[in-house]
Structure formats: C-alpha cells, structure tokens
Amino acid sequence: MTPHEIYKLIERGMEQVDEEIVRQSNSGVPLIDSIGRYISSSGGKRIRPAILLLGAGMCGYEGPVAPRLGAVIEMIHSATLLHDDILDNASVRRGRASVNAQWGNEITVLMGDWLYMTSFRLALGERHFKVLDVLIEATRKMIEGELIQLAFNGKFDITEEQHLDISIRKTAFLFSACSQLAAILSSAGEGKEELLRLYGLNVGLAFQLVDDVLDLTSDESTLGKPVGSDLKEGKLTLPLIYLMREGEPQHRELVRNAMRRKDVDASVMNEIVHLVKEYHTAERVLEKAHDYGRKAKECLASFPSCPERDALMSIPDYIVERDR
C-alpha cells in the first residue's frame, strides 16, 4: 500500500486531528497563536496520529476520541521538537528557521511547556485514566531519554545497547503510545493491546535507526536540517558506534576530533561518510531497522484482515525506505 493510499484511508480523521490542533492553538494570546500557526504549517507526515487512527479503525473504533488523541500525540511530539532544538542549538527544522531561531530560546522553551500542558488538558477531558497513564509514561520516558543522551554527549564509549535504550525512550515510546491507545479506545483486550504496543515500539525503533542513517547519508533539502547534525551535537549514533568499534585507530581519531570541534567542515564530513560506506555500517543499521519492521508486522498477525491492517503492515516498509 502506498503512502497516498494509507493516508486516504484516514483522510477525514487526519483532517480532524489538524482541526483540533488549530482549535487548541487559538489561545487568545497573540504570541502563542503566531507560534502555533508557524508550527502547524511546518509540514511533517503526522505518522504518529496516523498509526493511532489506523489502529483504532482496525479494532473497530469509529468515535471522535481517536482524532482528539491524535492531536494530543502531535502536540506532545511538537513540544519535544521545540525543546530538542534548544538543547541542540538547532537553527533549521523541516527546511525553515526553527522556532528558537525565530523567537529565541526563552520563548521557545515556554511554548514547549505550553504545548505539553495544553495536550494533557485535552487528554484529561476524556476522563480516561488508562489513556492518561499511557501518555504520562511515554512523556516521562522521552524526557528520561533526553537526559540520558545529554549525559553521553561528547563521549566516545557509548555502546550499541545504550544507544538503543535512548532510542526506545526518546522515539519508540511515543510510537507505542499511539498504537496502544488505539487498542484501549477499542476495548480490544489486554492481549491485543500488548501486541499493538509492541507494534508501535518496533516501528519507532525502525524510524529512529533510519533517522540515524539519513543524518549521515542524505542531503539537507531532504532532511530539512543540516547533514551530520548528530555528530556536530556530540552524539554518536549507531553507524558511528559501529565505526568506532571496528575502524582503524586513525578513523576513530577522525570521529573524535569531529565531535570535539562541533563545526565539522564538508571535507571531514565527506571522509566520515565515506568510511561509513566503506565499513558498511549504515547498511547494517538499515538491516537492523528492517528487522524491527518485520517484528512490527508479526505483531499484527492475529488481527483480522482489513484495509487498516494492510496499511499498518505497509508502514514499516514505508519508514525504512523513506527518503532514500
């Protein structure tokens, strides 16, 4: 199933997600309204609310709560991006000036806080404690992941297991919340709820690993941000963790120097990318992403065949093959 066919299935639901985000952003405070419009017009595939809507449809739920929770998820995601851009001193997001570059760090951190609180106010309106439990736990894990990553920034000895733990917390938990919420709304039962939770977790891991590769192998127009941003921010992602483990001493020193400088010039970045290709570390990370994609699909085996299930089965492939 193509991305167009996937989104066509949930077209009205996704429109409702966007409408809810716009409605929640109309605060009556001009500055908040301006930034809210800027964020909501910045694009993005909205893949997290799409997973929620598809999962709910697969499980037979057709009520109005799914789009509202899709908006909650998207606002939480937007809040994390605002805070991430401040921590990373990023000036570009999705091909244009980041909010912190446009309005400054002080306003941006408060806007991120406002988005968090607004999303939870919307979720609280459903008066569903299990929904709140899932959202709060996912948000807590994301913050833990950011703190753990900050502790590792600039360090050269981070292991594959530690990086995957950060990826689970920072990225995969929000994906798993989307799919788990679909089962909760549908009263699908604990067994199916756990399968959908694991589906989202594996999709989220695949998503993050592909991001790690694209940060080194894509281009700025495709990424919407400078290539090699992770390395410049002092973060060793999996392709470079493999290179540091298996490369020659001079290769490890090259990466160390790049991390120390944080203003890596094009020639150094090209050399590092060449080594990633020579050692096939990006290929191995993509193979790992494919494995997580396969695990995600296996989680759907016991669900009845329907267009929404077909779409969810296609999403891991779409994620792994995106922008390459």
Report on the architecture of this protein:
The chain is an all-alpha fold and 324 residues long. The chain contains 17 helices and two strands. Strands 1-2 form a two-stranded antiparallel ribbon. Strand 1 (92-93) and strand 2 form a beta hairpin. Helix 1 (3-9) runs antiparallel to helix 17 (307-321), helix 4 runs antiparallel to helix 5 and helix 8 (129-152) runs antiparallel to helix 9 (160-185). It starts with a helix and ends with a helix. The model has no long low-confidence stretch (mean pLDDT 91).
Mind sketching the topology for me?
Layout: H1 3-9, H2 11-25, H3 30-40, H4 47-58, H5 65-87, E1 92-93, E2 96-97, H6 99-103, H7 105-124, H8 129-152, H9 160-185, H10 190-217, H11 220-223, H12 229-232, H13 238-246, H14 249-261, H15 266-278, H16 281-298, H17 307-321
Antiparallel strand pairs: 1-2
Helix pairs in contact: 1-17, 2-3, 2-5, 4-5, 4-9, 4-17, 5-7, 5-8, 5-9, 8-9, 9-10, 10-16, 10-17, 13-16, 14-15, 16-17
